[in-house]
Specification:
The chain has one domain. It is 16% helix and 38% strand. The model has no long low-confidence stretch (mean pLDDT 91). The site of zinc ion has 7 residues, from loops. Zinc ion binds next to loops.
Length: 63
Amino acid sequence: MSANRSFRNVTRIGPVQVGTAYDSRGREKHTAACTAPRCGFSADYDSRAAAELAARTHRCPVR
Ligand SMILES: [Zn+2]
């Protein structure tokens, strides 16, 4: 399912996990990914604040 990137600073906000990792170009990326089954939400952001905001405001389309 998920790519095996090594995330650092992983935190969980509700069902969403936010982690920081380096992409293939060595740049820092901040990923927010929902852990709820069948949701599948996942997105990359340029800043940690943006990723955490997305995690905080995320609403699962399924319940
Ligand atoms: Zn979700």
